[in-house]
Specification:
homodimer; 144 residues; alpha+beta; four-stranded mixed β-sheet; three-stranded antiparallel β-sheet; 7 strands
Amino acid sequence: MKLSFHYEPGNGFVSEDKGKDTLIMKDPLLENTTRISPTELLVYAMGGCSSADVVLILSRMRKNIKSYRVELDAERESEDPKTLKSVNIHYIMEGDFTKENALRAVSLSLEKYCSVSILAKRGGAHLTYSITLNGESIAKNMEA
Amino acid sequence: MKLSFHYEPGNGFVSEDKGKDTLIMKDPLLENTTRISPTELLVYAMGGCSSADVVLILSRMRKNIKSYRVELDAERESEDPKTLKSVNIHYIMEGDFTKENALRAVSLSLEKYCSVSILAKRGGAHLTYSITLNGESIAKNMEA
């Protein structure tokens, strides 16, 4: 995988992958910016990677997902390099499937398939998950 | 840090951080999409996190950066969960500073400050760097 970006002072680090959306990461010399920081990107990538698995697994089970949201709650270490200390991924789903289907999809993702979250976990981040299915909490801060 | 996103089938996973740019990660059920994947985001985050350090460190040294680009070359493991196997960060800079300044900024970042790259390295990714300063290669595939 080859990717590149360049620095535009006052704007940020701008991706150069022509066929893809442009990503702009924040300029470290700016205090107020709407740009996303690299650490936020990592946390989004953990949730996005796992969500790709969950959506794929449920779709292969021929389950109908009515709505799907994720809330991420992350904490960094207080000492440099301030790596991720903990991340909770809260899957909030509505659809025509059972608790067992939801739990199976999330477990398969976090234990077997989600490369970004598994790398972060191996790197020392404490990874947990919560699941709310059709308004009911079926898992809360479980160890991944 | 609290972040969230929701799934829009046919579009992707759409971030909900109101004060920030919208990030859309690819829909796993689509083959052709301009959206960025979570693994690509992780690789961008590694380069972006380190670049934030390098720009900050050089600016604190009161050095003038004329241009700054990064090329990332990443490889994934072939077996699930296909975590990052290796990442080379190639810093391509032009400016009024010495090789020693550039090497110092990059080393400080990759050894001490860049939380995303250091987490990935702890998680098993083989991290290397190359530096081209004012058209001259001053480091090539060095261990980070």
